[in-house]
Design brief:
Layout: E1 7-14, H1 16-19, H2 27-38, E2 43-50, H3 54-66, E3 71-75, H4 86-91, E4 96-97, H5 99-110, E5 123-126, E6 129-134, H6 139-146, E7 147-150, E8 153-157, H7 163-169
Parallel strand pairs: 1-2, 1-3, 3-6
Antiparallel strand pairs: 4-5, 5-6, 7-8
The structure holds adenosine-5'-triphosphate and the ligand Nc1nc2c(c(=O)[nH]1)N[C@H]1C(S)=C(S)[C@@H](COP(=O)(O)O)O[C@H]1N2.
Residues 13, 15-18, 23, 25-27, 52, 76-77, 79, 136-138 line the site of adenosine-5'-triphosphate.
Length: 194
């Protein structure tokens, strides 16, 4: 682990019911589990469990970026219901939008469930941080990040394959993945010599 850059990652579960204790939050454990399996870097997690309130979500994202998170993943609140405001709260703190992530996430989701088109999820850059919205269904976390595999063959690439190079480009740490979970892509010129 010593030769990998350390990274701080913000994980935010956004759900009225999980944050008020109506049901147990499965979003933060699913995010932590997947990231720990996928990344070879030592990760410090900054975790937040909050209700679907736009100002609260935006303030949490700003706080996590200011705390040095190179990557922030949210789960929940991306649908069409009146209280689903995660995309608006994310865009409100954006320096740049990264539409390719949302497009690919919905394409991946459609391989699993027809209602994937109901997710308005976005990804943005704020400062030196990449912020990505994932849907609230805990199973959608692995689906979206890892994509679809069959007999070990990658049928649909997950969006995480593009995350390490994106983090390079905004001046973050060099993220290295376990290829068995997620094979990241970088142009040859961006590969770090071993
Ligand atoms: N954080 C979570 N932990 C566990 N299960 C969740 C979580 N978020 C969503 N789910 C599950 O996914 C389903 C669909 O997500 P939905 O968007 O309706 O939830 P939600 O936005 O978290 O709802 P609410 O904010 O009202 O609690 C939920 O009914 C629930 O079973
Ligand atoms: N990969 C994936 N994407 C998915 C889903 C899923 O199960 N897997 N659920 C969909 C459903 S049912 C909804 S309503 C939207 C929005 O969910 P959210 O409001 O919980 O964020 O995400 C969609 N995207």
């Amino acid at each position: 682990m010593a030769d990998h850059d350390p990274v701080t990652i913000g994980i935010v579960s956004i759900s009225d019911r999980a944050s008020s204790g109506v049901y147990e939050d499965k979003g933060l454990p699913a995010l932590k589990d997947w990231l720990t399996r996928a990344l070879r870097n030592a990760i410090t997690f900054q975790e937040r469990l909050i209700p679907d309130e736009k100002e609260r979500i935006s303030a949490t994202l700003v706080e996590l970026v200011d705390a040095g998170c190179s990557l922030v993943l949210t789960t929940g609140g991306t649908g069409p219901a009146p209280r689903d405001v995660t995309p608006e709260a994310t865009l409100a703190v954006a320096d740049k939008e990264m539409p390719g992530f949302g497009e690919q996430m919905r394409q991946i989701g459609l391989r699993f469930v027809a209602t994937a088109i109901l997710s308005r999820q976005v990804a943005v850059i704020r400062g030196q941080s990449l912020i990505i919205n994932l849907p609230g269904q805990p199973k959608s976390i692995q689906e979206t990040l890892e994509g679809l595999k069959e007999d070990g063959r990658q049928l649909v690439p997950g969006i995480f394959a593009a995350v390490p190079y994106c983090v390079d480009l905004i001046g973050g740490p060099y993220l290295e993945t376990d290829d068995a979970v997620c094979k990241a892509f970088r142009p040859k010129s961006a590969l770090r010599q071993k």
